[in-house]
Design goal:
Elements: H1 9-26, E1 42-46, E2 49-52, E3 57-61, H2 63-66, H3 75-87, H4 98-110, E4 117-121, H5 124-139, E5 143-147, H6 156-161, E6 177-180, H7 195-213, E7 218-224, H8 239-250, E8 253-257, E9 281-284, E10 296-300, H9 302-305, H10 323-338, H11 341-363, E11 367-373, E12 376-384, E13 389-390, H12 399-410, E14 413-418, E15 421-424, H13 432-450
Parallel strand pairs: 3-14, 5-6, 5-7, 7-8, 8-9
Antiparallel strand pairs: 1-2, 2-3, 4-10, 9-10, 11-12, 12-13, 12-15, 14-15
């Protein structure tokens, strides 16, 4: 047997052992205490599958960092990178190149409203940094409102905007960020009983926050259209439209963070398309080229872009619109269109993943709620359905979660995990057979979680 890259299992294991040894000696990992790490080695990947250092094949229901939307090693994207490398590997951002220009056109064609100017970055965090900078310069204000239970990136501004525990060691209270509660009916802060009540009360809370902070001091409201790592909480009908109305009323810039939810993940090109709302700025990354080469960006509405018609924009990056990254984006967006990959994500969510996860929830007492769209789902695990006590504490993990995830991996399923949640986020290309395979393995793993319920 050979792996997708042509190596025998024996050769792959030797390579994996060397890679692991060098990693532990020299690589400093993000978000981790270095001494206790035991990272998994990946030796190959193809489509919806990866192979670990022992040659085991695992169904990738994590899409790695929820970014390989088009799957691993898509031949059209690989070929585009190879062709671009042979033509023009790199060029400075001040010079026009066809890959960047075409990528900008393709992205602008798919953004909602008139967001037709694209500023390219290296990834999602610096896209957020620049979106906030644009909003502050456009309005002449400084404060930015962001929700609790959110993630916006690891750079200085982005991590302070973030509403999860990763912010805490980096937050000194001087970033000009004010946090508020977004809608999340399962763990409502507003004592709501229905989605309509949750929406109305969350909007009232946001408006009160604006009023108490001073509308004339607030540059932007930033929201993940559908929060990702924080829990895939799909906003209730009318919420994002209500945020849009509040921003218009008070002259505040509305930034939609689509870094994780964009480019097909929810079954639409952008998650905000589900809600018929056009923000002033959209941040994107991840799925724009499935992470094959680092790329992110900001899609900009005309009235924001016009601020810099005669006034230089004070920001840039050496690799803004890098040819290899934007060539990968062109190939990714083209393949997604031709192969109807966005439509496939919507179909898999509606026909297979959504019904399948709801069926699992009925049978497993450890499942408090499932929620999502497209190929973007969260399974909320609880110790007690009545009290909704989570299976792991907010900001931490537990033996129950560790055992559940280990059981899934032992059976051949790689999951995205955050606190007490399992995220079911396969590539947008996932087929019916692969989706059902993943659900069957998840069914087995949930029996482990059930053993920790009361």
């Amino acid at each position: 047997m050979t792996l997708p890259h042509g190596l025998t299992p024996e050769a792959a294991r030797e390579r994996a052992a060397r890679a692991y040894d060098l990693d532990r000696k020299h690589v400093f990992h993000s978000w981790s205490a270095q001494k206790s790490l035991n990272p998994m080695v990946i030796t190959a990947a193809q489509g919806c599958y990866v192979w670990d250092g022992d040659g085991n094949r695992l169904l990738d229901f994590s899409s790695q960092m929820v970014n390989t939307n088009i799957g691993h090693q898509h031949p059209k994207v690989v070929a585009a990178i190879q062709e671009q490398a042979a033509t023009l590997c790199t060029i400075g951002p001040a010079y026009v190149n066809d890959a960047r220009s075409e990528a900008a056109r393709l992205i602008a064609e798919r953004t909602p409203g008139e967001l037709n100017r694209i500023f390219f970055t290296n990834g999602g965090a610096d896209a957020v940094e620049h979106a906030v900078r644009m909003a502050r310069l456009h309005t002449g204000r400084y404060k930015v409102l962001a929700r609790y239970r959110s993630y916006h990136g690891g750079t200085e501004t982005a991590i302070n905007l973030t509403g999860d525990p990763r912010r805490w060691p980096n937050d000194h209270g001087n970033a000009g960020v004010v946090h508020f509660f977004g809608p999340f009916l399962y763990r409502s802060q507003f004592h709501a009983a229905t989605e309509a009540e949750e929406c109305e009360r969350a909007l009232r809370h946001l408006e009160q926050t604006i009023e108490l902070e001073g509308p004339g001091t607030i540059a932007a409201v930033i929201l993940e259209s559908v929060p990702g790592t924080a829990g895939i909480m799909v906003p209730p009908a009318g919420y994002l439209a209500g945020v849009r109305e509040l921003c218009d009323r008070y002259g505040i810039v509305f930034i939609a963070d689509e870094v994780m939810a964009g480019f097909g993940r929810t079954g639409r090109w952008f998650a905000i398309d589900h809600f018929d709302v056009a923000p002033d700025l959209i941040t994107f990354a991840k799925g724009v080229n499935s992470g094959y080469v680092p790329l992110g960006g900001v899609a900009i509405a005309p009235h924001i872009a016009a601020t810099f018609d005669d006034r230089p924009y004070p920001g840039g990056l050496t690799y803004s619109g890098h040819p290899l990254a934007t060539a990968a984006a062109v190939a990714t967006i083209t393949a997604m269109t031709e192969e109807r990959i966005v439509e496939n994500a919507a179909d898999m969510g509606e026909r297979i993943l959504g019904p399948g996860l709801r069926e699992l929830a009925e049978r497993h007492p450890s499942v408090g709620e499932v929620r999502g769209l497209g190929v973007f789902w969260a399974v909320e695990l609880v110790r007690d359905r009545a009290t909704r006590e989570p299976l792991a504490p907010y900001g931490g993990t537990s033996p129950a979660m560790t055992e559940t995830v280990a059981a899934a991996r032992a059976a051949g399923l790689l999951l995205f995990v955050n606190f007490n949640r399992l995220h079911v986020v396969p590539p947008c290309i996932v087929g019916e057979a692969e989706a059902k395979e993943g659900l069957a393995i998840l069914d087995q793993a949930l029996t482990v979680a059930d053993g920790h319920t009361v």
